[in-house]
């Protein structure tokens, strides 16, 4: 069993003149290792994996895995951050082949969403995830994000999948408080908030943490929020959350990860580049993000 608690960052993929900027990616890994986050997600939605070919995806993952080991080796007090890997698609057999490749790597698990576009029945979703979990040598984290896949994972489906020994957690982006609470009460899956504005309520209700794109900026404050809430310091946690809320709202004011990249570019961490069909944040939002950075 793996522990998926805490604040996890779904890493962006930096670009420079159209190519993956591996130096910037390494710098980000070091930054988040210093911040005390619980782990990283490679090739999640925030990492724009749909715009990366297979070789680029493998290279991005290799850089992240190498960087987390190097960061840990640089300090005896620092552990190597666990890395979840996003695996997406709507062809079960092809995804099983990808999982077979990932089985050979030292990763913490795989983050898998429902098949997109095809909108299968719940019975098909159970069979799909079960086949992928059967093929995996690593833990599986379900990714329930119906606004991207076109189909949600119903509660009965989630409770059925929770019985699989390798399905251990869920990134909860469905926006259903009833489902969130039911999964927390059931206790078999670690529940991670995937909508960043729900971090406070999810953790207070007994959830395990969050996979939070907005935590790319000021990650220490997200870690402090998690620690305050899990250690019973509710007033402190409330203050931190309300201070972070404007940042979270701006981070998703336009399609992710454009606002995050604009914010990081303003501080020199990355270039403000995305690949089509994703585009940069608007000038108006970029100005608001710059003001946020100046007010830090």
TrEMBL record:
Positions contributing to pyruvate binding: 46, 211
Biochemical pathway: Amino-acid biosynthesis; L-lysine biosynthesis via DAP pathway; (S)-tetrahydrodipicolinate from L-aspartate: step 3/4
A GO MF term: 4-hydroxy-tetrahydrodipicolinate synthase activity
Gene3D superfamilies referenced in this protein's UniProt entry, alphabetically: Aldolase class I (3.20.20.70)
Domain of life: Bacteria
Site feature (Part of a proton relay during catalysis) residues: 45, 117
GO cellular component labels: cytoplasm
Catalytic activity entry: L-aspartate 4-semialdehyde + pyruvate = (2S,4S)-4-hydroxy-2,3,4,5-tetrahydrodipicolinate + H2O + H(+)
InterPro entries, alphabetized: Aldolase_TIM (IPR013785), DapA (IPR005263), DapA-like (IPR002220), Schiff_base-form_aldolases_AS (IPR020625)
GO biological process: diaminopimelate biosynthetic process; lysine biosynthetic process via diaminopimelate
Active-site positions on this chain: 143, 171
Enzyme class: lyase
Listed HAMAP family: DapA
Known function: Catalyzes the condensation of (S)-aspartate-beta-semialdehyde [(S)-ASA] and pyruvate to 4-hydroxy-tetrahydrodipicolinate (HTPA).
Complex formation: Homotetramer; dimer of dimers.
Similarity remark: Belongs to the DapA family.
The name this protein goes by in its record: 4-hydroxy-tetrahydrodipicolinate synthase
